Amino acid sequence: MKITQTIKTLILIVVMVFLTDFAYAATVRLSWDSNTEPDLAGYIVYYGTSSRSYMEYFDAGLTTSVDVADLTAATPYFFAVTAYDTSGNESSFSSEAYIFIPAEDGEILPDSDLDGIPDAVEVSLGMSATDPLDSLLDTDCDGAVNLVEYMEGTSPLNADDRPDNDDLLLDMIGEAGEQIDLSGITSGGLYSIVPLLASYPEPVNDILQTTTPGALLYNVIDENSELVYRLRVSLSGQLSALGDYEPGYAMNLEDTSYGIRVELSADAVLRVVPIGIGTTGEEPASAVDYENETLEFDLLPYGLVLANPAFVTVAYDGENPAVQHYDPASDTWENIDGVESYDGTVSFSTQELGSYKVYSEEESAEVPASDGGGGGGGGCFITTAGF
Questions:
Q1: What is the CATH number of the domain that holds 40?
Q2: pTM above 0.85, yes or no
Q3: Number of C-alpha atoms within 13 angstroms, CB side, residue 352?
Q4: For residue 372, is it within any domain?
Q5: What is the pLDDT of residues 95-130, one digit of tens each?
Q6: How far apart (Å, rounded) are the C-alpha atoms in residues 83 and 90?
Q7: Which of 122, 149, 256, 294 could pair with 359 as two cysteines, CB 3.0-4.6 Å apart?
Q8: What span, in angstroms and rounded, lies between the C-alpha atoms of 302 and 133?
Q9: The CATH number of the domain where 200 resides is what?
Q10: Is pLDDT at 376 greater than 70 in this prediction?
Q11: Which residues on adjacent β-strands are paired with residue 41?
Q12: Per residue in 200-210, pLDDT tens?
């Protein structure tokens, strides 16, 4: 009988084994669900230092738990298991388990872009070791960004391997031109706030101020220069609605001036996070181009990826309405599928917050990108506006 059942659950436990006073290797314990075929003959364990590229493997027999020994410190490892039957048929790979074996005590790992993820890990995950913004990508679309997954020891490539929280990432929302008080984050001066990119403005006496809407990223570090938080500050031209999302509670936020409403499920985000509705311009009226029947608005924080899509409704009377979201990486507006229109309202779902545009296809088949905004890129990837 051919093996048809793919192993779905792969559990990973790390056991550190010290070899000498100066070096150690790690032993990783793997466990998985058993297959039920009557002619099941055994399992094969695969592992390597790149995702789905396994350089090592061994036959585990009929056991469903093994130890993989002599793994190198400061190295990422990926694991998968297959089943095979008495005729030699082999199943497809199980879900992938990932772990970064910790460095030896006192060892400082290279982190060229200072994004909190060592170069070796970024390369193994297909990320760039010189682009700090990819630490806030959500590659597996599970609602936790790559930096949080690395810090929590879960896989950025497996949506089933999700951290219990992402308290490492902090969000603040404000208006461009207004002062943003960061003193509550510095813990009485114990922590320092450092721009992730040199182009971002530095806080002065824990006060941040800039006139440009968009998203700004900062590292909050302790006296030992170790990362405590990654801070994202999202600035809209003007905020028209603001609230706090709490995990376990659904949230409905509405801007009554334009009839913009966003609904988040109870499990959309793993942490408490502010949610806002705003406009890219300095005045509310600048969000509406009456001649072209175009409505632009922001859902903040820019680039926040949700584990479950938000449902957005907008009051709009234009003919044949379409919706686009702004991708700052390519400086273009991208179409959103699944838009519905009924009785003067437009509705759509999105898994990423950012800048949006509702317009009439009767008026314009191609709407150019505006200069403002700083919202989300396509899919489940967080992109951040640069200044």
A1: 2.60.40.10
A2: no
A3: 29
A4: no
A5: 888 888 877 765 677 888 878 888 888 888 888 888
A6: 6
A7: 294
A8: 13
A9: 2.60.40.1380
A10: no
A11: none
A12: 899 998 999 99
Nearest alpha carbon to residue 331 among 281, 372, 288? 372
Residue 85 sits in the same domain as residue 153? no
Q: Is 119 in contact with 129 (CB distance < 8 Å)?
A: yes
CA 253 to centroid of chain Cα atoms:
22
Amino acid at 264: L
Cα separation, 219 vs 228, in Å, equals: 8
Name the more confident of 365 and 121: 121
Q: Determine the structural domain holding residue 155 and report its residue range.
A: 110-164
Let me know if residue 384 belongs to a domain.
no
How many whole angstroms separate alpha carbon 358 and alpha carbon 287? 11
Give the bridge partners for 29, in sequence order: 13, 67
Q: For every residue of the chain, which 3-state class applies, written as one string?
A: CCCCCCCCCEEEEEEEEECCCCCEEEEEEEEECCCCCCCEEEEEEEEECECCECCEEEEEECCCEEEEEEECCCEEEEEEEEEEECCCCECCCCCCEEEEECCCCCCCCCCCCCCCCCHHHHHHCCCCCCCHHHHHCCCCCCCCCHHHHHHHCCCCCCCCCCCCCCCCEEEEEEECCCCEECCCCCCCCCCEEEECCCCCCCCECCEECCCCCEEEEEEEECCCCCEEEEEEEEEECEEEEEEEECCCCCEEEEECCCCEEEEECCCCCCCCEEEEEEECCCCHHHHEECCCCEEEEEEECCCCEEEEEEEEEEECCCCCEEEEEEECCCCEEEECCCCEEECCEEEEEEEECCEEEEEECCCCCCCCCCCCCCCCCCCCCCCCCCC
Question: Distance between CA 4 and CA 171 in Å, rounded?
Answer: 45
Burial class (CB in 10 A: 0-12, 13-18, 19+), 375: buried
Residue whose C-alpha is closest to residue 124's, from 154, 99, 93, 161: 99
Distance CA 35, CA 24 (A): 35
